[in-house]
């Protein structure tokens, strides 16, 4: 009997079961704390409920049971984006980042056959971020980092962030970009920050990297964007047309056109629609799309990989790429060191 395909879920989130009361520790609000009552978790922010979470958000053994049930070999763990804390004082955000990175690394160390992980950075301080990249790579062995789609008023093409991108390249670290901070008054109903704001944030992040010349300056930077890249794959023609037709506005910092980055960027598969996923793979390449479920949240894919597996027009080779092999390439993981190496034959 052939082995089932290796399944690596790049887009999953985890929290520690507890952490210090950060408002008391630092003397100001805005911090999240987790309250657990009768097995239910409540992420509280300034005394108000931010999000209810289930036990699988912090209980690793519960998580592994669900992975076994859905056939996921590995999860790539990352923090919940609200924990980025880019708004906070830099030293405080750095301490929180180190706490979260130590926790996520310890989880991998306890279960190396089920988890990999991406760290988080205090991006409001590029200098502290560079130091944390070096620490996480050398001491914790993390292969990369998850960052937000912007940093306060900085888009990702901000000059201040160049040392961070340079450090990622120098330390052979990948970069997973997750949309966040989508709140506006016009999107305060119908869950629109998550339904509409997140795809917009992902698209803005990609366009900033392209039009801002970041991807040209750092050609070895490996970047994956969550939620299928938002609307970027589906507006690529419009972006290309803008580059050529209005170069005085669109092409001021970049020599390459948006379409020339096809094959450079990775995208997760979380698009919730078979036609959208087929278009994403056709447009961006079967080597550039990676399984991502947004586990353990309700907007995610309940059975990671089911959408990929359901598309009859995908060959088994393509499915294998999307379900696991592309993740290894993005993360820079040597297949021969993977405990599932027999699956690569």
From TrEMBL:
Pfam families: Amidohydro_2. Keywords: Decarboxylase, Lyase, Metal-binding, Zinc. Residues 8-332 form the Amidohydrolase-related domain. It catalyses: 2-amino-3-carboxymuconate 6-semialdehyde + H(+) = 2-aminomuconate 6-semialdehyde + CO2. It comes from the Eukaryota. One of its GO terms (molecular function) is metal ion binding. One of its GO terms (biological process) is negative regulation of quinolinate biosynthetic process. InterPro entries: ACMSD, Amidohydro-rel, Metal_Hydrolase. Its EC number is 4.1.1.45. Pathway: Secondary metabolite metabolism; quinolate metabolism. The keyword Iron-sulfur does not apply. GO terms for cellular component: cytoplasm; cytosol. It is an enzyme of class 4 (lyase). Converts alpha-amino-beta-carboxymuconate-epsilon-semialdehyde (ACMS) to alpha-aminomuconate semialdehyde (AMS). ACMS can be converted non-enzymatically to quinolate (QA), a key precursor of NAD, and a potent endogenous excitotoxin of neuronal cells which is implicated in the pathogenesis of various neurodegenerative disorders. In the presence of ACMSD, ACMS is converted to AMS, a benign catabolite. ACMSD ultimately controls the metabolic fate of tryptophan catabolism along the kynurenine pathway. Monomer. Belongs to the metallo-dependent hydrolases superfamily. ACMSD family. This is 2-amino-3-carboxymuconate-6-semialdehyde decarboxylase. It comes from Helobdella robusta.
């Amino acid at each position: 009997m052939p082995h089932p395909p290796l399944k690596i879920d790049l887009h999953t989130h985890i929290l520690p079961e507890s952490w210090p009361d950060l408002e008391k520790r630092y003397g100001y609000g805005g911090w999240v704390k987790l309250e657990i009552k009768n097995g239910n978790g409540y992420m509280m922010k300034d005394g108000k409920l931010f999000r209810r979470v289930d036990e699988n958000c912090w209980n690793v053994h519960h998580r592994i049971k669900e992975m076994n049930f859905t056939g996921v070999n590995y999860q790539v763990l990352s923090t919940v984006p609200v924990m980025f804390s880019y708004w906070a004082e830099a030293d405080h955000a750095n301490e929180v980042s180190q706490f979260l990175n130590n926790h996520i690394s310890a989880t991998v160390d306890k279960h190396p056959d089920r988890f990999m992980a991406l760290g988080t950075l205090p991006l409001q301080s590029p200098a502290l971020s560079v130091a944390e990249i070096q620490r996480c790579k050398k001491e914790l062995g993390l292969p990369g980092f998850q960052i937000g789609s912007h940093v306060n008023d900085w888009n990702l093409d901000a000059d201040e962030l160049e040392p961070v991108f340079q450090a990622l390249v120098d330390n052979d670290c990948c970069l997973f970009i997750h949309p966040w901070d989508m709140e506006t008054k016009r999107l305060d109903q119908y869950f629109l920050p998550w339904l509409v704001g997140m795809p917009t944030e992902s698209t803005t992040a990609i366009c900033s990297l392209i039009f801002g010349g970041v991807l040209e300056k750092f050609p070895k930077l490996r970047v994956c964007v969550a939620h299928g890249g938002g609307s970027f794959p589906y507006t690529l023609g419009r972006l290309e047309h803008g580059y050529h037709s209005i170069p005085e506005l669109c092409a001021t910092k970049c020599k390459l056109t948006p379409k020339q980055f096809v094959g450079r960027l990775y995208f997760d598969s979380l698009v919730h629609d078979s036609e959208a996923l087929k278009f994403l793979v056709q447009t961006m390449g079967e080597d550039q799309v990676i399984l991502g479920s947004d586990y353990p949240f309700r907007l995610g894919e309940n059975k990671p990989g089911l959408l990929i597996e359901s598309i009859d027009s995908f060959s088994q080779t393509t499915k294998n790429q999307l379900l696991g092999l592309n993740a290894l390439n993005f993360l820079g993981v040597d297949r021969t060191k993977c405990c599932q190496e027999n699956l690569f034959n």
